[in-house]
Amino acid sequence: MRTKPLSLRAWRPRLLCLTLLSATVVPFSPAAAVVTAAPASAEQTIQVSGQALITTTPAAARQAALDDAVRTAIEQVLGAYVSASSTLRSTEDFEQLQQRLIKRADGFGRVVQVLAESQQGGTYSVTVRVAVARPSLEQELKAFLTQKGDPRILVVIPEQVLRRVVPDPAAETEVQRALIAAGYRVVDLTQAQHNTLRDTLRGGAIDTQGRSELATRYQADLLVTGEAFAEEYGAVLGQRAYTARLELKVVDLATGQIIFSDAFTGTGAAATDAIAGKTALQNVGRTAAPALPGALLGWLSGNGKTAGRTFTVRFRNVPNFRALNDTLAALRGSAGVNAALNRQFDAAGALAEVEYNGAPEDLAQLLEDLGLTITGLSAGELTVAFR
């Protein structure tokens, strides 16, 4: 029975992020130092230059130079998500997206400080600081990438206050809210599924088999995991005061590669220990959550910390070992491929790991160009068949 080829246009990546954070509130010495991380800013300020020809008046040229600087700033911020080496950036669709964003530059960036300006010959030049609205750009890029597939994210954050399980976790709510606001679909777990995942992930690092089981059972590509805890550090105006720490990392289930890792802190105060601890966890969740959409965008576009990540490629209908070796050699010589290693070969087929600087659909197109047929595709694994 022949496997039916999969249309690249119909591919919908199964992005199911399982986030498990163990959040515990325990007593702590009031003398301990408390460091609170600043919340992620909605704007990114960068220094850029802009130029414009003086065709009418210097004032008009100055405004045109300022507009040019804002466009440059937007291009730089957008480039942080999709690098120049990414094959996604060279597509016509992405070029059209970039042009639309540049035309609407005034809606995404604004000049907050003019550092220098000059008029030389027929050119007006400025050096300025521009504040770019990153969440707005992320929404636009997310909408563009959703055309390639609409990822689903599962957030599971069991929390404890004074060693008692909280039925409505605070940090989980904040992470869910941020992902929903960024346009991602958040999927609920049943209580039984929640307990199973908690027991599975609480033991620490997951081996290859564990990652494979999670990916298969929940049709997941990414795992978001970590730990959260809150500690009492004293009293503020007669209220109980707590500090919380949240550690997050995002793991590619196909390869085990960590594509995001960071730690955050927050504080909270209330009349009781339980509410103060929960408030601290809510605040640290609020601080950490804005970092996730950008990390997911980088993963979807094959850029940033995910650039050059390793994909699992399963080969079916392999005629012989020589054909497999020739195919891997051709892959190594292709643009964007850093490595292509054979990990297994038997009567059922072959398994290879390919380190590639790009998105999974770009790698799929490359494999098709080499004469293979794509029969399965997710964000971290591809299944191909020899023709």
UniProtKB/TrEMBL annotation:
It comes from the Bacteria. InterPro entries: FlgT_N (IPR032370), FlgT_N_sf (IPR038180). Pfam families: FlgT_N (PF16548). Keywords: Cell projection, Cilium, Flagellum, Signal. Residues 45-132 form the Flagellar assembly protein T N-terminal domain. Residues 1-33 form the signal peptide. This is Flagellar assembly protein T N-terminal domain-containing protein.
